[in-house]
Amino acid sequence: MPYLIDGNNLLGSWGGPRGDDGRAEVVRRVAAFCRARGARAIIVFDGHPLRHDIETQTLWAVTIRVPPQGQDADDVIRDVVEHAPRAADLIVVTSDKALYSYVKTLGASILRAHEWNALERRVSPGAAEAGEKPDHESDVAGWLKRFGGD
């Protein structure tokens, strides 16, 4: 099953951009996950393309898309699911409640960003450690590590 990933949502679940805009890290981690699982993924990012001359890029098993002018990533994801031959063949990764509900009614499988993160850790141990928010607020050691406390 191909993964259809809200890239900004996934990045946000890791605590946001670090250094550059963070999208390259999303692509790197999703690509490693896809290689390990033998899966394919489409990552949809809001904003400008990673390369300004290309709105859709394919790198191995990962396709990167940005929405056309006047649309956002949610619009692109809805469109992909609506036009899929079988929406049930897609796994949409998002934490956006409205998008989650909509694509689920079309028959797509859903993973919230934190669920994808947990799956990624099982598939690629150690790949998700840098910069990711702890799973639970009670993970004080994780928060301290993340924000440089003792």
What is the share of helical residues?
Answer: 40-55%
How far apart are the termini? 42 Å
Shape: globular
* Range of strand content: 5-15%
Number of beta strands = 6
Question: Residue ranges: pLDDT <50 for 5 or more in a row?
Answer: 134-138
The structural class is: alpha/beta
For the largest beta-sheet, the strand count, sense and barrel status come to:
6 strands, mixed
Count of individual helical segments: 6
Order of the strands making up the biggest sheet: 3-4-2-1-5-6
Mean pLDDT: 81
Structural write-up:
This protein is α/β, with parallel strands linked by helices. Helix 1 (7-13) crosses helix 2. The chain has a six-stranded mixed beta sheet. Strand 3 and strand 4 (62-65) form a beta hairpin. Helices cover 41% and strands 15% of the residues. The protein is built from six helices and six strands; from the N terminus they run βααβββαβαβαα.
Helices, strands, pairings?
Elements lengths: L2 E4 H7 L9 H15 L3 E4 L11 E4 L2 E4 L7 H11 L7 E3 L3 H9 L3 E3 L1 H11 L16 H8 L3
Parallel strand pairs: 1-2, 1-5, 2-4, 5-6
Antiparallel strand pairs: 3-4
Using brief descriptors, characterize the structure shown.
41% helix, six-stranded mixed sheet, 6 strands, 6 helices, 150 residues, alpha/beta
